[in-house]
């Protein structure tokens, strides 16, 4: 796992040396002897260090000194990223063409300014080169040996495996009787009063999969259907808005400024005298039902609410007889595992006998937990279909007996990812639990942050779709919507247990920090930061009087806010991505807009936000390099004239249609 960060930085460094950084070095580097040489040495030494990391990974879990060495490697990799990004920002600032007289004036100082930036870049590379040599020299003391070049045994998923089946959902195997039972309670029960049906079981047992299958089977029996993913981060206002969205046509939605009472009143008016089905998926506390049950009308017309939860007491708060979903038996476990291990095998074909026997051993270890079987089966699909390869994997997994083996299998699947996919997988940690992720926005984020290498054929979008398909094939993400024409993924989410793994990995590497409380603050500044501030309790943990840099640092590359945006008063030279969801946004603090501080911003997103005066400020023209602007579910009708002239802007998403 250690090579993910180094590989990401190495690729980013190489990409930078092919772009504007290379142009600057070629044009002016001859004036500063050694800058080019230092860049080449750093690039070469990064490759050498990366070759030791596979051996380091195998020891890092048990040897503290190796973990310390990896920490030093990661630190110097981040120093390289800082140097490249700072130099890139300097070049961007120097190369930007001011209008008229100011551009002519700027040309007079361009060369001295560029030479100064090159001088600083060269000094930083020289210092980094010294650190890299010290780290390489210390590897023997730390017990890290160069076993191979890091490429042997590295798996790359064959392209033919990326052609997915039509069904991206977890297969419903062994759930047939459970499905019929739930359907019977929903539509065959003669009770006309509103009633609740609940499904209970541990994480990964398939509650959401069963609920989705049941929903698709019975939805035509109800006039209104609502699906709500509740999760541990329960927020009443957010759920009310989601209900309102599903009940109202797009053009009639106007819930951003509605108080709670008005939202409830409009929801009840839309549901009145209609037979409805509401799915409350992944409920964690009894309080969820206590607050929501008053919203749903009781019209004695056979309306139903279906709840899924990990906790019996939560289910019993709404349903006296919750349905406890059982674990899969051995036969169904083996069938699910083999279906995932051989996704393209014809149903009439038999499986190799030795692998079928080994599959029974794997299934027994998984204890009948469907998610674990799916993840393990998908991992097996990346191995050679022979006994030796499967048995080798069997021996490599730490099969413990205290319930942690599920996480261990998922961690093994993560370790088997190519380095570029590890960075992409960790990026999912920025989103709240059970969040449905827009693929277009995600791909722009990946592209801007350098998660997608520039080399190779195809567009960035095509490469990113390939990455998403590969993660889906490995069951690391769940596809919730595909384009019916192209087959491209349009929406996806990450299972709770896999999201926990992503958060842990990203945090351990100081790659991404997710903030819920002030206790999430760290001594090391965040490189990518996400603030989940849906509840008043979460919001009160962060002071309005403090600048965002006091929490995330000044060198953060991306900022995401869910539920509330924190003050941005300082100049943030390296910030490239800003995403704000579900809150009100004020742009001006006195005469100036804080957007003026974000000179390197490439990706700007306001989703389901109420923007000050329902407009974007003219100061958005300061974002010279803005490529992606997303205004989904805001009231913005038109853009300021200044931003329309921005040649860098490639895509504007979801402007509201003018009524005139």
Automatic annotation (TrEMBL):
Alphabetical list of InterPro entries matching this protein: Apaf_helical (IPR042197), Disease_R_plants (IPR044974), LRR_dom_sf (IPR032675), NB-ARC (IPR002182), P-loop_NTPase (IPR027417), RX-like_CC (IPR038005), Rx_N (IPR041118), WH-like_DNA-bd_sf (IPR036388)
SUPFAM superfamilies: L domain-like, P-loop containing nucleoside triphosphate hydrolases
The protein's name in its UniProt record: Disease resistance family protein
Gene3D superfamilies per record: 1.20.5.4130, Helical domain of apoptotic protease-activating factors, P-loop containing nucleotide triphosphate hydrolases, Ribonuclease Inhibitor, Winged helix-like DNA-binding domain superfamily/Winged helix DNA-binding domain
The keyword Repeat appears for this protein: yes
Gene Ontology process terms (BP): defense response to bacterium; innate immune response-activating signaling pathway; plant-type hypersensitive response
Family the entry assigns: Belongs to the disease resistance NB-LRR family.
Organism whose genome encodes this protein: Rhynchospora pubera
Pfam families tied to this protein: NB-ARC (PF00931), Rx_N (PF18052), WHD_DRP (PF23559)
Residue ranges of every copy of the Disease resistance N-terminal domain listed in the record: 16-92
Cited CDD domains: RX-CC_like (cd14798)
GO molecular function: ADP binding
Source superkingdom: Eukaryota
Record's keyword terms, sorted: Leucine-rich repeat, Nucleotide-binding, Plant defense, Repeat
Limits of the Disease resistance protein winged helix domain: 430-501
Domain NB-ARC residues, every copy: 176-345
